[in-house]
Amino acid sequence: MRTRVKQLFVNKDFYQEQEVEIKGWVRTNRAQAQFGFLNINDGSYLENLQVVYDNKISNFEEISKYRVGVSVHIRGIIKLTPNLKQPLELHATFVKLLGDCPEDYPIQPKRHTREFLREVAHLRPRTNLFSAVFRIRSVAAMAIHTYFQERGYVYVHTPLITCADCEGSDQMFKITTLDLNQLPYDQNKVDFSKDLFGKQAFITGSGQLQGETYAMAFSDIYTFGPTFRTENSNTKIHANEFWMIEPEMAFCDLEELMDIEEEMLKFVIQYVVDHCPLEIDFCDQFVAKGLKNKIQNLLNSKFTRITHHDVVDILKNAKVKWEFLPSYEDDIAKEHEKYITDYFNGPVFITNWPKDIKAYYMKLNADGKTVAAVDLVVPEAGELMGGSQREENLEKLLARMEELHINKEEIDWYLDTRRYGGCVHSGFGMGFERLIMYLTGIENIRDVIPFPRTPKNCEY
Amino acid sequence: MRTRVKQLFVNKDFYQEQEVEIKGWVRTNRAQAQFGFLNINDGSYLENLQVVYDNKISNFEEISKYRVGVSVHIRGIIKLTPNLKQPLELHATFVKLLGDCPEDYPIQPKRHTREFLREVAHLRPRTNLFSAVFRIRSVAAMAIHTYFQERGYVYVHTPLITCADCEGSDQMFKITTLDLNQLPYDQNKVDFSKDLFGKQAFITGSGQLQGETYAMAFSDIYTFGPTFRTENSNTKIHANEFWMIEPEMAFCDLEELMDIEEEMLKFVIQYVVDHCPLEIDFCDQFVAKGLKNKIQNLLNSKFTRITHHDVVDILKNAKVKWEFLPSYEDDIAKEHEKYITDYFNGPVFITNWPKDIKAYYMKLNADGKTVAAVDLVVPEAGELMGGSQREENLEKLLARMEELHINKEEIDWYLDTRRYGGCVHSGFGMGFERLIMYLTGIENIRDVIPFPRTPKNCEY
Q1: Which of B44, B158, B173 sits opposite A152 (nearest CB)?
Q2: Which residues of B touch A210 (CB under 8 A)?
Q3: C-beta of residue A9 within 8 angstroms of C-beta of residue A88
Q4: How far apart are CA A205 and CA A167, in angstroms?
Q5: Backbone φ, ψ for residue A348 (5° rounding)
Q6: B446 to chain A, minimum CA–CA distance in Å?
């Protein structure tokens, strides 16, 4: 039975002087005349296991020539080494090559640029950096499920394929089973009756509307799945495929929504800190100095709650030459977000946004000008979550849809949430990659997605 | 602070004689002259809370007219009722209407057919049946994450958008940002250089190949996400969008793969039994009599392991008039699966399949005729998982790709898993909906997916 390297480190006293068997990949091989050292990583742990081998092993000569990247099977005795850099070593009695690796293996024990590693996205998880990043990503996903499930939320798999283009079909990928080189036409228009669904279909950018219908049954639900945007923008923070979390809560107003957002974010971050201490240390040391401090500050802070109007007042009074002039009618620019999080020295919930820059389904406030929306802006991360209380009043919702030319017929089912036992309810969306960038200090979204999809880039 | 109905039932002694506040939806209202009963469901629990109201409440007249489906806010005192059918009641002191519901509300307290409920998929989670089904679905998802994360597997978000059509582009939806009514053409072919990714893109039916590259870094990984098939087949077990789990393990052969499959399946089923006792009871009573027995039998059974060849021997010797004649070269038909699970009285792993009916990446056995593939067939469910040891030998893999005309250039990155420290490795796929159908006894896949997508059917 093979032992995972992580087990050896975590239960080292148990394994002292025990014979163990491991399988993994050689990260380095330092061979000398009579003995040598292999650093082995099996992916279970960020640290490598140091394996000592000597010329008492029959294939010593062969082992000493193992190249970086080969996979091996090793048996030996665990020795604790409290006086050395590494806490333990494996003294090999048996070493066998499982899979060879040529000289030109791209992942060598040296610093590779992240740009280079993006070109070998299928190999980069074999580096310490991406081993840390993608383990954090995995654990953060588990943290999110744990938070919601422990609190009785129902995880809803909302559909990705949709025929309603209420998001505006420009924003969505079209999907089809038709041969694009030989589309069937009828009166100069594509005849979608021949397509699989009998009409034009898309992949969607949000499960919110379907999520709301489930919140009207289960009270508390969440979605967590892939999401798509067709944006043709090559920035460090945009990808065309990413993962999103969209919780939706019945009987929940804007204040309660903020309570949940704050509690969830702290829970998830604390969970990752608890489960990935080595990985966070690594990112603090090699990706973003001060990362641990930043995270600890967030965990210790009480998030500020302030209206958009009051934020603009602060910005207007600031002695700063803005690139974008703050305005009561407009969005908050990146430079403003930064100023505000500095001003309050922590995360800030900005509430009650001008209705004209927000979505039709958000609750209109009594002033008739603002909606009960909330964005959470976080130091060094910018906007991390966006949510709102939903307009539960059918007449007001219909009026707003009319104003914005939203097709009512297409989402009549959605309006049923307001017709049949409607109630005050709220929800938010969090881009999962934003969270991972925050937790790792990584600045480019391409480095927190295993195989990122961006304009002109769809490899692997 | 609002209390969830589930809390009242689970901690009923704590709440005895306590004043509580609840919010939920009226499932029934039985009003009499001086008093009445509301059955309230807030989605946290399968059972309704019985609320007693009487004419000491100022708006008694109004309450007694509440229709099915309205949402309400109620305050009152919890009374334990050990001699009644329900273990507790809420004696209301305050009842307020939150959202009204018209007479023609489709979800009335009577039996609705599942066909009818599919037509109101956005409302059906408000019924007991779908409340049970979709809570089981949510909890089963958590069970899967728990199983893998507790064992150190890394959850990998493999991409859905792909440009490699190695699955055969007929099997995949094409996606585009181009206007289908005005496609740009170059020499009579669509000019995909104008598309977002600069070439023809698809949404994929599997993350396995990308998953394998991550297994070569982390040893143990899994995916869990939506998957797409373009199959134009209207059956009870096919949908065009469904969720799939695809674990992939380095240093794992076919025998170990079966160990993992069996352990995982039992873990997940036990987890759901433990966390959803009411829901399983409900399905046993109203969906599939004997469900609990079936589940308990699976948990207690040791799964049989037998080769495809030996299965065919058994089928040939059976005194049965087969619709499909058993053959050493062919797939196992539904009727055969049923015979074999009956024969062994439990789940059966069928191994070593004829290579010609399996995928190119499966490990060729020494006989040169079969591959180290395994299907798990389960009583009353049929095939629940399919997996294989992968061909780790580059030359053999290339030869097989050549035979099957798989484009090598397009997935050259995949071949790197065999070039750079390759090793024996294995993986499997499990359709999540199959599992939910097994756990609930539901026979139509449309009833275990919140908003199912099937040919000509893409509503909501």
Answers
A1: B44
A2: 122, 450-451, 460
A3: yes
A4: 8
A5: -135, 125
A6: 12
Whole-number Å distance between alpha carbons of A258 and A385: 10
Give the up-direction half-sphere exposure of residue B18: CA atoms within 13 A in the CB hemisphere: 14
Structure tokens at B250: 């380095």
**CA pseudo-torsion sign B362, B366, B367, B373:** negative
Q: Is A69 left (phi over 0), alpha (psi -120 to 50) or beta?
A: left
Task: Kindly list the residues from chain B whose CB atom is less than 8 angstroms away from the CB atom of residue A220.
Answer: 43-44
Chain B's closest residue to A219, CA to CA, is B43
Supply the DSSP symbol for A443. -
By C-alpha distance, the chain A residue nearest B155 is A138
Which of the residues B134, B208, B458 would you substitute to probe the A interface, choosing the one with the greatest number of A C-beta atoms within 10 Å? B458
Instruction: Tell me which chain A residues have a C-beta less than 8 angstroms from the C-beta of B251.
Output: 2, 23, 71, 73, 98
Contact: B214, A125; criterion CB under 8 Å: yes
Provide the shortest C-alpha distance from residue A23 to chain B (in Å). Answer: 7
pTM above the 0.95 mark? yes
DSSP strand pairing (B161-162 vs B173-176):
unpaired
Whether B455 and A196 lie within 8 Å, measured CB to CB: yes
Contact A27, A109 (CB under 8 A): yes
Over its length of 460 residues, how does chain A's per-residue pLDDT go in tens digits? 899 999 999 999 999 999 999 999 999 999 999 999 999 999 999 999 999 999 999 999 999 999 999 999 999 999 999 999 999 999 999 999 999 999 999 999 999 999 999 999 999 999 999 999 999 999 999 999 999 999 999 999 999 999 876 666 678 999 999 999 999 999 999 999 999 999 999 998 899 999 999 999 999 999 999 999 999 999 999 999 999 999 999 999 999 999 999 999 999 999 999 999 999 999 999 999 999 999 999 999 999 999 999 999 999 999 999 999 999 999 999 999 999 999 999 999 999 999 999 999 999 999 999 999 999 999 888 899 999 999 999 999 999 999 999 989 989 999 999 999 999 999 999 999 999 999 999 999 999 999 999 999 999 9
Considering only the beta carbons, identify the residue of A122, A392, A423 that sits closest to B416: A122
The 3-state secondary structure of chain B reads CCCCHHHHHHCHHHHCCCEEEEEEEEEEEEECCCEEEEEEECCCCCCCEEEEEECCCCCHHHHCCCCCCCEEEEEEEEEECCCCCCCEEEEEEEEEEEECCCCCCCCCCCCCCHHHHHHCCCCHHHCHHHHHHHHHHHHHHHHHHHHHHHCCCEECCCCCEECCCCCCHHHCEEEECCCHHHCCEECCEECHHHCCCCCCEEECCCCHHHHHHHHHHHCEEEEEEEEECCCCCCCCCCCCEEEEEEEEEECCCHHHHHHHHHHHHHHHHHHHHHHCHHHHHHHHHHCCCCHHHHHHHHHHCCCEEEEHHHHHHHHHHCCCCCCCCCCCCCCCCHHHHHHHHHHHCCCEEEEEEEHHHCCCCECECCCCCEEEEEEEEECCCEEEEEEEEECCCHHHHHHHHHHCCCCCHHHHHHHHHHHCCCCCEEEEEEEHHHHHHHHHCCCCHHHCCCCCCECCECCC
ipTM of the complex as predicted: 0.97
Q: Which residues make beta-bridge pairs with B454?
A: B457
**Contact assignment for B210 to A126 by CB distance below 8 Å:** no
- Which residue of chain A comes nearest to B432, CA vs CA? A157
B88 contacts B119 by C-beta, under 8 angstroms: no
Please state, in angstroms and rounded to a whole number, the distance separating the CA atoms of residues A391 and A324: 31
Beta strands in A126-200 (DSSP E): 154-155, 161-162, 173-176, 185-186, 189-190
Are the Cβ atoms of B459 and A413 closer than 8 angstroms? yes
Q: How far apart are CA A162 and CA A167, in angstroms?
A: 11
